[in-house]
Amino acid sequence: MELFNDFFETTGGFQFMARFGHILAGVTWIGLLYFFNFVQVPAYAELSDGARSEALRKLTFRALWWFRYAAALTFLFGIILVGIYSSEENSNYLEGVSGTSILTGMLFGITMFLNVWGVIWRNQKIVIGNAENVAAGGEANPEAPAAAKRAARASRCNTLFSIPMLWFMVFTAHGVTFYSAVGGTIVYWAFLLIIWGLIEASALGYIGGFDSPFNKLAFDKHQNTIWAGFILLAVIWFIGWELLLPT
Ligand code: HEM
What we know:
About 80% of the residues lie in helices and about 0% in strands. It has about 250 residues and is an all-alpha fold. Helix 1 (about 15-45) runs antiparallel to helix 2 (about 50-85), helix 1 (about 15-45) runs antiparallel to helix 4 and helix 5 (about 185-205) runs antiparallel to helix 7 (about 220-245).
């Protein structure tokens, strides 16, 4: 039972299990996010109203249950991991280059988690509730199309953020030792927070509405969203890490 030796130490079995749980829940969450964005949205655009309504109530409803609880578990295990690594005596986990890397990943991961529960699920409840009501012979809810748009924009924003998020999660665990940077400065964090804030505010419709030129370009087509994710990663990497982090 050596897995249980020094169970709660930073190298012990507990951190391993939390890490395993974090990755298992993360795969479930992000896998469903990609299914919604790359498969469901284009497929639903081709379905008849009746078929789409039935699929929303029977398929999307179930997928959203796994999606939001996987997001909650990923977040919970992630916070447990941060707690384990930063509670070690004389820990400088959140300082220096590992801290800069994991805090960058967490900025995107926590925003994505809040988008799931605060925007996507809240608005999908209106969309699915409307489909249920119409299927039972009731009146259509005039709020439903706007709710669907809000959910769709937040979902595309999460897809965009998922690329730098996952990079920095994995980089913290396996890559920071390649790097000689000493950690983020105020200039790095200001730079990162401005780009993150502009993209999130835009997706939430606060900059020029839901159909602003940026939103249409980055979010209307999922192919563009994937490109935008890699471009964001490159910008953070080449400007943030290569130019702004002191070595
Ligand atoms: C929601 C907020 C999140 C927090 C607070 C968080 C926190 C963490 C922490 C502390 C680590 C350990 C890094 C280290 O080894 O020093 C980690 C690793 C990791 N995280 Fe997250 N994370 C979050 C979201 C996600 C999401 C959404 C995914 C999606 C799959 C994810 C995937 C990973 C992966 C793959 C690793 C690397 C594990 C390894 O290779 O050992 N995380 N995360």
